[in-house]
Each structure stands twice: as structure tokens, then as C-alpha cells.
Design goal:
There is one protein chain. It contains five helices and four strands. By secondary structure, the protein is α+β, with helices and mostly antiparallel strands. It has two domains: 41 residues, no CATH class; 90 residues, Alpha-Beta Plaits. A four-stranded antiparallel sheet has the order 2-3-1-4, with no helix packed on it. The radius of gyration is 22 Å and the shape is elongated.
């Protein structure tokens, strides 16, 4: 970490004109853009999707299970009565599929999506299925 501070301080000391500042800012922004783009394309981030439903929980759970996703259901109490809280842990590349399943079975569902630092020993879709989603063709 200290070495990066030293490098940046040297760059700033050498930048003594407007083009130097613009070049530094452009390089910094381009690096961030490329890093975000690569991470987004790889979609390695794990997400937790939390749904709160008053009805149609069985249909959502069955559809998620049939698509290969693990689901945990918890009974709860909302302001308008009993609710079911459904959790599923997914990779970001699977989010469009999961959203489509949710919207087909329960269109007005309250849902939240958060990043997860780590998850293990759960039910996740097959690796081959993820390769097809990532590269667009089946591996042999």
C-alpha cells in the first residue's frame, strides 16, 4: 500500500500542467472503467436475493428449484399479515434468469438484492450451465 502512495505522489509532483492533470485523471478513469467492465463480464460476484411474498410462494419456489437454484423459505409477519420470505444465493450472471422467474410467478413481489462476500455448501446451478451462459455454447 505504501508503495502505491509513493508512486501516486511522484506522479502528482511531476504533473505541473493542465494536460498532465487531464492525462492522469483520464488514465485513472479508464482503468476503473476497464476493471468494472471485466468484472461485470466475468460476473463472479455472489448475490443473495430476498423475496417477501404474501402469496404465490410455492410457485416461485417450484420454478426456482426446477431451474436448479437453492431456496430457503421462512415464515414471517408483515404489516398486512403473514408473509413468506424466500432467500436464494446466486451468481450475478444468473440474476436475469432469477428475476424472470420471479416476475412470471409473482409480478409484484418485494425483492432485495445484495452482494455476498462468501457462500459455501449450498445448492448452486451446475457449472456446465454457467459455462453455456458465459460463452453462449455448450461445451463437449
Amino acid at each position: 500500500m505504501f508503495i502505491w502512495i509513493a508512486i501516486v505522489s511522484q506522479i502528482i509532483k511531476q504533473a505541473d500542467s493542465l494536460p498532465s492533470y487531464i492525462g492522469y485523471a483520464s488514465g485513472f478513469a479508464a482503468g476503473n472503467f476497464v476493471g468494472i467492465y471485466i468484472e461485470d463480464r466475468l460476473a463472479l460476484v455472489t448475490l443473495i436475493v430476498r423475496l417477501i411474498l404474501q402469496k404465490n410462494a410455492k410457485a416461485v419456489i417450484a420454478s426456482l428449484h426446477s431451474a436448479g437454484f437453492g431456496v430457503t423459505k421462512v415464515e414471517g409477519q408483515g404489516t398486512a399479515g403473514p408473509v413468506q420470505i424466500i432467500y436464494t444465493i446466486i451468481k450475478r450472471r444468473d440474476l436475469p434468469t432469477v428475476r424472470e422467474i420471479i416476475h412470471q410467478n409473482a409480478p409484484h413481489t418485494f425483492l432485495t438484492i445484495e452482494e455476498v462476500r462468501s457462500a459455501e455448501a449450498g445448492v448452486f446451478p451446475e457449472f456446465k450451465k454457467n459455462l453455456v451462459a458465459l460463452f453462449g455454447r455448450k461445451s463437449k
